[in-house]
Each structure stands twice: as C-alpha cells, then as structure tokens.
Write a structure and sequence with these properties.
Structural class: alpha+beta
Shape: globular
Radius of gyration: 15 Å
Length: 162
Amino acid sequence: MVTLGHAPAAGAEQRLKDLGITLPSAPTPFGAYVEAVQIGRLLFLSGMLPVVDRKPQFIGRLGGELSVEEGRNAAELAALSALAAVREHLGSLDKVTGVAKLGVYIATAGDFRDHPKVADGASEVLLKVFGPEMLSGRVVLGVASLPLGLPVEVELVLEAAA
C-alpha cells in the first residue's frame, strides 16, 4: 500500500532531464472548464487527452482502428500532457508529494480485453517520473467513445506540498 505524502517527489524534474523526456506544451481546455483545480493539498486534473498543440495524435478505438501499442503510446502522451498541466499549475513537478489516483478511460470496439496493457502506458510515465514509492491506485474503464474521437483519456489526482 502506498501512503500519500510519505516520500517527497524531489528529483522529478531531474528525472525528466535524465530520461530525456520533454513535456509537451500545457494543454488548454476544449470547453468551459479548467485543466487543474487545487483544493487544499489535492490537485485534481481534468481528463487529459493525447493531443499536441490542440491536434489529436491518435484517432479511433482500441481493438478497431488502433493496436494495443498505439493505445499505450496514446496513454503515454496523455500522461505527459497531464504532467505539463501539473507543472504549469504548481510551477514544478518537484512539488508533487503523492499520486493519489490514476484513471484511464479507453475507447474500445468489440471484445477488446487488453485495457491494463494500454493503461500501463500512463502508469509507466508516472513511475519513471515520480518513482515506485508514488505508484498509485488505478481505475481503467472501456467506453464507447471519447472527446474528438480520441482513444484514451487520463485523469489524475495528486497531492502537492503545502
């Protein structure tokens, strides 16, 4: 079991550099909402999509037009967009002290059953950036469709330093 706040995320920004990961530009809303809301020490992110500069990078459903590997890549990109939103809101990923929950929504066709493999694309980004001590609980759901015809949407709840 992971306990929130027990391990500081100091070094998340350095891990990004060490891994050669460049975050995309922070996403902007496609509607009447904000990307991040902080209540106390909890930071709630809106659903993050696999887009770059407001342009979808993947279109379709898993088990239909897209493969598991493409789904993993879409989940990874959505997680990187989430980190960009966190950095913009907090000023630094080093202010994250816990990952409370990861939600991954996957648009599927037919009898698709590899949801965990797709969701691991997002989980592994968080693991690399924040380390194993902040691995979180996760919800993975298959859905009929997602905004803009995208295959994956990622949602995060984080704990931030006071």
